[in-house]
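User: Predict structure, ligand guanosine-5'-triphosphate.
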Amino acid sequence: MSQPTAPEPLSASEREDAQVSRLLTWLSATAIVLLAGIGAKAWFAEHTTHAWVLWFFIGLIAINMLAFARTGNRVRRKAGLIVVVGLLFTYLMASGGESNTGPLWFYVFPPLLFYLTDLKTGTAVLLFCYLVAVVVFQFPGLPMVSAEYSTDFKIRFFSTLTFESIFCFVLEASRLKARHELLTLAESHERAARTDELTGLANRRDMHNRLSGEFSRYQRSGHHFSIALIDLDLFKKINDRYGHDAGDQVLREFSALMQTVIRQTDVAGRWGGEEFLILLPDTSLLQALTLAERLRSEVARHPFRFGEQALPVTISAGVCSIAKAGSLDDLLKQADLNLYAAKEAGRNRIAPRVRTQEEEGASPTP
Ligand SMILES: Nc1nc2c(ncn2[C@@H]2O[C@H](COP(=O)(O)OP(=O)(O)OP(=O)(O)O)[C@@H](O)[C@H]2O)c(=O)[nH]1
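Assistant: Predicted complex:
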């Protein structure tokens, strides 16, 4: 029976994108309300052209919102909003807005720009806007420029705007740095929580998650999988005779060897102590037994050494396929029973039993 699957959790950057998206919707809606109100005020003050221009900008913002709703393209939406807001502020500077207060709206631009773009783009756009402001202020006779500002106003406007821009730049740069450090830290913690420190393999918790994921996939679409539970034989003796460091080196060397034998889609993990688990997606019991047998013979052949000392290392493994088990617990239990059987039968072997190539060759032909 197919079970409903939980939606994949969003990544940190996807969550941030969604947050910026919500903020932009909120900003656009606020801008529309403000422009409608200020436009109405201008209309009643009989500044009809000014009112119509402001309402025209409502149209541009609404088009930008609709385009995003249709395409979902966040980059275009940000660029569109920056262009519309930039044009609006240029108009307010050139026309003076109500009572020559138009340029004051420009103070909204630096924090918005640095939030919506990266530092380089934000600085470039801001410098371009400065240039436009200088042209508008210095050449009041240009077409479409109807406002004139006093020298005192211009000096104060540019000084305060420069201060604000530098502050915004520095704050945004430190916000980005802190964000980067936090993400890197979170990533390394997350990796550490999934990884076994000694061998670098997936740890038991990660293997449990992967097994659950594979089991859900099996329930959803019937993709079979198998597992091999592996134990290093008489490992205590290696520790006792050659020391704990030698034991650790064997665990690391075995892990590296195992990685070379399995496929890229297989996952090897440390199940605990000297026990390992391999998850083999899309693999039948027979295929899993073949792989386990290959690993067993590779390990038996491999010259494990600690300094000058040759170390005797062999493995036993219990293999099981999901086709032979009703649940994950059952699968692990059966693999464990098979591993126990392999140990009982004398170690350095795989259970359920498969005939090795040497045995095939030695058996009398019928
Ligand atoms: N060096 C080292 N030893 C470990 C580590 N984890 C577990 N061990 C040792 O692995 C040994 C496991 O011993 P046993 O459970 O008796 O099993 P065994 O000696 O492998 O015998 P069989 O499993 O019956 O073949 C113990 O001595 C543990 O101390 C580890 O991270 N490093």
